[in-house]
């Protein structure tokens, strides 16, 4: 039943389908997560741009880390771009997003500025948290992005609280709470599942299963590696989604958000995805083979899939895509220049923002 | 223009490393993400990926070179059509540090561009730590002459405070175990479900970590949760959410997003409930920047301070006590009786010695003051009421008058609130002290169950009396 750990994504898709059947049978007849409509030209171009921005931004962040401009921990999102971009395409204005510390992609996807994020990474005053949060801690009320949290699993309870607020206010918003396959083993995740199901809170729990909790593969850390089933004890439906295919993510997101908005309570989407880089900058990733990484990159890259589709369907020429690439590179370079030139926070900021 | 590839830092602490292997040679084409070299750090062997596209123009550091400093130029990447003659002979870039005084220099190294720094370097000023701003607490409101005083228990005062604030603000709600149908494990929420309904008075499952997180999330979204812990002993399950999420988010977000939330419930020992149900957490929470910590004694303070806590935009830890719930005090009958958080109250003025206490500690102090009065020692008794922010000025003003200080609390003695007060008074009012400060606390043991041992583990009036006599050299 559980997908084989070393199987390729195509192998996992088969597993995903059977999991989908089981999950939908046991939990919800209505929720299938099986819609995989083709994107139109605009959708594909949008997804391409957004995912490429994250990819190039993260590569630049890695470079600035290497140069000593970014300190501490820095967890890159490269490889997982389709997950946040697809979900963001499904969301409505007002839906809240919360995640852990592999968070740069989520911020960019919600529309937070590359400059503000990069300047936070370099610890400068123009960063989203005035340089006081760093890579793991950024927030934007305006973009409904609630962080940016460094304790594995804590964001799941907090995200459930955001959903609680939506229900309390009787508004139409849904909370989208991301966590990894590692966090999925934390106790508070299940405490939250229980309350969310009990109170029918509008929340989409997104397990970004990138197969490794830091250096521990799912097979070594969990007795049930089909995370979409993790809510079944609480009657929370869930499905596995090909998280490398932005169309599949968007389709599952559409359905999940509709499920929440219609008052049916929480839902789980397990995104089968992959992180190309190490857990953080100092991780040599010796726990997996180079072939495994290379296979994902060459056969299932989320951006390359869209690029090939755009060319195949004649929706963009090589030159047009190059022009997009250049635009994105310019945005990223500009953010890096800003983040290096922007001054550090004023020393007086040491004692601000502790209490209101 | 050729792009320099620099020796990268690959961990938070790396300063140099060994360039163990090149995986590309001069003339090879590379695209973003291609592994170009392997670098050995003190921790691991890491792969270096290309960020930019181009052709390797020159490898500047041979494979096998040890101690290559971070940010040394190790290779040069040429863009399409560029020849090797475009490579400048400039010296390797100086190592970059993320200091504010180097951005201009390092951005030049990184992108080959010279950029004017937006501002003068601030590093020189950095060496001086700015002074911590002083917190100014307001004074208690005047109680108009002729105000009726109503005798009520701490329990009733707490319930009234919550009910009044829930009437006042639709965003205030209370959640916790047994707060609704059961009317509160200690009946503090009695009647609230009937008045406000189950939307605003919410029974939770037994799941402290989870509902503390749900409360903080709701507060981040702008609601005003009152989270009741059946006892603060159970809040240890939730302490990560209280400290890492509630207390730190405002700072981590640069002031954008805080958590206006009250965590309240009985704290400390009750009677014969043994080690796991008897701990006083005042010192623990008072350690944390980003929290306010209130520990009231009287019913009036319980009411006025809980109302203030619910209105406060910050996370407030409100430490009650099961034994005090049934104690009665006079509470002014006023429409809106709100007290300032962070302000101590002179419970009784005196001139010979100062006792500082708070919460249940006050029960020992009040009796000790009476006994000492019989022996002709006139004690000034300060009820601290709030542990953070701490009203030290009121304590120091009293010590300047009496020259002698004793603190009284039930919590463990090491790193206690009393030792904190003693340290700060010693530092700020040393010249006014006529005797060493004595701190009375619970004993340094887990709370025993046996009645006699429990009594021994807690402070007692005799200890307080003796301590005051000692500092008075009597």
Describe the structure.
The complex is a heterodimer of chains A (356) and B (474). Chain A is α/β, with parallel strands linked by helices and 356 residues long. Chain A has a domain at 9-33 and 78-100 and 138-324: 3-Layer(aba) Sandwich (Rossmann fold). Helix content of chain A is 46%, strand content 10%. Chain A is built from twelve helices and eight strands. In chain A, the strands form two sheets. Chain A has a six-stranded parallel sheet with strand order 2-1-3-4-8-7, with helices on both faces. In chain A, α2 packs across α3 (81-90), α2 (41-66) runs parallel beside α12 (318-341) and α5 (114-121) packs across α12. The radius of gyration of chain A is 19 Å and the shape is globular. The relative contact order of chain A is 0.18. The N and C termini of chain B lie far apart (86 Å). By secondary structure, chain B is an alpha/beta fold. Chain B has three domains: 3-99, RNA polymerase II/Efflux pump adaptor protein, barrel-sandwich hybrid domain (OB fold (Dihydrolipoamide Acetyltransferase, E2P)), CATH 2.40.50.100; 149-332, 3-Layer(aba) Sandwich (Rossmann fold); 345-471, Rossmann fold, CATH 3.40.50.920. Chain B is elongated, with a radius of gyration of 31 Å. In chain B, the strands form five sheets. A seven-stranded mixed sheet of chain B has the order 11-10-12-13-15-14-20, sandwiched between helices. In chain B, a hairpin with a 4-residue loop joins β4 (35-40) and β5. The model of chain B is unreliable at 92-123 (pLDDT under 50). In chain B, α5 (208-220) runs parallel beside α6 and α12 packs across α13 (417-429).
